[in-house]
Amino acid sequence: MFELESQIRKWRAHLRSTGSVGAQDLEELESHLRDSVEELTAQGITTEEAFLVSLRRMGDAEALSHEFAKISTENLWRQLLVPAPDEGTRKRQRLEVALVLGLVLLAGLLGKIPALFGFGVVESYPLLYLKNAAIFALPSVAVYLIWRRSLPLPFVLSSAAVFAIFAVVINLYPSYAPHHTEGLMAIHLPIVLLLFLGVLYGGFGWRRSGVRLDFVRFAGEVFIYSVLIGLGGLVLISVSVTMFKFVQIDIGGLTDNWLAIFGGCGLLVVASFLVERKKALIESVAPVLARIFVPLFLAVLLSLIVAMAVTGRAPSQDRDMLIWFDIVLALVLGLVLYTMSARDAEQPAGVWDIVIIALLVVAMIANGIALAGIVIRLSAFGISANKTAALGENLFLLLNLLLLTICYVRFFAGRMRFQAIVDLQMRYLPAYALWATIVVVAFPPIFRFF
Amino acid sequence: MRVMTIPKDLVAASAIPIILAILRRADSYGYAIIQKVREVSEDRLTWSDGMLYPVLHRLEAAGFIVSYWKVAKTGRKRKYYHLNAAGATELERLKEQWFVVHNALERLTGSTEAGE
Lengths: 450, 116
Prior knowledge:
The complex is a heterodimer. Helices cover 80% and strands 0% of the residues of chain A. By secondary structure, chain A is mainly α. In chain A, α13 (285-311) runs antiparallel to α14. In chain B, α1 (8-25) crosses α4 (85-115). The longest helix of chain B has 31 residues, at 85-115.
């Protein structure tokens, strides 16, 4: 049975993947294609034939995107500033820019709160700033999303409550050397709050897996934008410090304690704004990045396993080891999620899915080897906050990868729809929020704030 | 009868005045423009449909036409193009150029035929 809708979706996805055809252009071309199909079917041929003829008439996608590229590349960035067609939208856009600037200011001011209590110098209190970083930067993003989605009061109140509660908890808990539980809070709080932002991102639809997948994509794109802007900021800061040194003025304190704080805290809201406002720009970059790094990661993990097998050297008892394996698993999960978000769920299984399965399996094997060595030693040395947290994460991630592998294999065997994998994975996401919340809220008292 | 096909270069060169001329009659959208070209050229001037859009965008960037979205009765969104004063001037200019070429050919070939 020929399915016009899914065929059109595929064609759109293909054109979009070329990167040069914008959202508006796609809309226009699709409208054209539909007109053409409609007219041809009206003349009595089947929908499938009509679609094929229309495609042929539309012309080769490569040539088409090439033509579009010629006219669009020079003004991709300018499109950010192009005024909207009607006055109402223009007003809202101006308001949005003003709001974002205000929110950057808000984030920066939150970041200066410690200075009120005499903790103004970032360098002297790194852990304090680190564990509060999410509390400084993310409320602005929350406000922006609430405004953007026009969310009603319950969302506003619950966000205020969430941020307030966590701010109080992490700052009122005592912390004794070697400050392990405090460090854990610094790592896990951003995970909790990020996933909470997912609720705001989705609004009333936050339970739907499609919406959650959109949020995953959003988070990834915000990350890419933040890295780009952050790099620019670093260059700006180092250049200005050096230039002022030439005129014998030391602005190091100013840049570190003011510029870096305002820039660092405001970065995320600016990136969120850019992602929301100009989706098409990065949309084509992220899947490409995922495609580049999936095979590379696979190669690295494979060689790691080979190295462990050949040297016979099991991973050492170093507790950093487990943390590093957590990071590897999280990265693998991120790559798989990203590939997932860029994939058309209707597309049948292909070579690329085999690569994903291979990556999942290899990651689990490498982790399994490391884990086996570590669990034995852990039991000998007793438990600590860090080890328990790392082990917990590892189990959550491992279970996640295992589920994904089973699903992918079933999908490959034709016994599962791809959409079902997405649904399952998206239902799994809150588990991370749960575990991270436990680490932030319950670990410090359990481990006596050490 | 064998349908006379027109070489690509000539099609490309004639595209702009033809599009402008169609838009001078009334605002129109991509699909309808293509249909109109087919109709008036009796199917001899054919482009791959998609190529029309980059040309339209270029004309818009040059300030000859302006676009706006309109929802059709069927509920489909269509991007309409409207010829403005600058576009009308441009059309006159291009038309003159084509007449020069046309007249030159006519004079040459016309006189040859008359001479034989």
